[in-house]
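INTERNAL AUDIT FORM
Audit reference: QA-55
Scope: verify that the stored structure record matches its stored sequence.
Auditor: D.O.
Record contents follow.
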Amino acid sequence: MADAVRGSDRSLKPEARLELAGSLEARQQYDDALLAYYRAIIEAQRQSRWLDTASTPPALLDRVTRAMRFVKAGRRRAFVSVLEPIYARYGREALHRFDDTYEHEAWNRGLQTRVVLIIDVWNPHLTVAERNAVAALVEAMGDFNRAAGI
């Protein structure tokens, strides 16, 4: 999976990375495409680009929109696969509350910086299954971001 960010492509601009991701996807290298799309989006958004239709060039809008959908679906699949061993051990019902309350994304597609205060507090009411799921997802998210070069 990390091949998408190895070697000479570390200096690619987001547009070039978007092209790379499309090529990887066309070659059915979906894991590498996911990382390349994700990194392209993150790098562009750090430059206040690709935040919305106003900050995305019309010629790129369809490809950027597709990339965002690809990343959303791919990350969801990746994180669900992390939960599979926990589902197998504890059953899906054990994580029902967890699935409904934890799974979400937040994007700032505005032009102004949004500051979010995140207080990391362990919920003492989580079951063993929920604690294991949170720990597995946090680890997977870190691994995903490192693999994408973020």
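Auditor finding: record pair retrieved intact. Residues 1-8 have pLDDT under 50 and may be disordered.
Action required: none
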